[in-house]
Every structure is written in structure tokens, then in C-alpha cells.
């Protein structure tokens, strides 16, 4: 469970995003690379805005470390969904790393 949870850490998501964006830029998929970067930044902004809108407090649990941000929506799953689904859509369209050289992608 801990390994799956770590896939949603902001440091790993940032690393994956940077690697994929740089890979796309190096392959000449400049629009696709910037699109992915914009989606990730937009998803993080949307998550923060939704937290402010709902302003749901976290439960007061004495054995758990104090966190001062709101509890809903959870930032890790929200940004994880944005990163992995955006990359998945690009791969499904043939615009990602699995595409044949010179073919498939529109990016």
C-alpha cells in the first residue's frame, strides 16, 4: 500500500512530469509538452481553489500529525489523476513515448 501511495507524492509527480515534458520537447512535441505542463499546473491550481471553496476541516485525531490545509479534495489524488490521465491520453492518441518515430502524434 505504501508503494502505491508514494505514486501520488508531489515530488514523484513533479519528477515524472518534468521527465515526460522534457522528453516530449526533445522529440519535437513542443505543443504536447507545454500542454502537459499546463494541465499539471492547472490541476494543482484547481485543487487548491476547490480546497478553498469547500473549506472542509480535517478530523481532529490526536495520534496523527497536524495538517493545516483543508481535507477535501485531497491534493495527492487530484494531481495524480491529472498527471497520469493526461499522460495516458497522450499515449493512447499515439503522441507519447510509445509512438513510432515520425508518426502518430499531432503534438
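-> sequence recovered:
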Amino acid at each position: 500500500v505504501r508503494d502505491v501511495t508514494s505514486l501520488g507524492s508531489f515530488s514523484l509527480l513533479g519528477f515524472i512530469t518534468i521527465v515526460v515534458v522534457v522528453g516530449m520537447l526533445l522529440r519535437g512535441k513542443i505543443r504536447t509538452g507545454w500542454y502537459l505542463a499546463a494541465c499539471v499546473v492547472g490541476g494543482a491550481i484547481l485543487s487548491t481553489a476547490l480546497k478553498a471553496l469547500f473549506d472542509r476541516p480535517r478530523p481532529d485525531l490526536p495520534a496523527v500529525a497536524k495538517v493545516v490545509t483543508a481535507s477535501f479534495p485531497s491534493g495527492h489524488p487530484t494531481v495524480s489523476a491529472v498527471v497520469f490521465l493526461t499522460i495516458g491520453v497522450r499515449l493512447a492518441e499515439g503522441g507519447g513515448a510509445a509512438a513510432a518515430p515520425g508518426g502518430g502524434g499531432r503534438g
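Confidence is low (pLDDT under 50) at residues 98-104.
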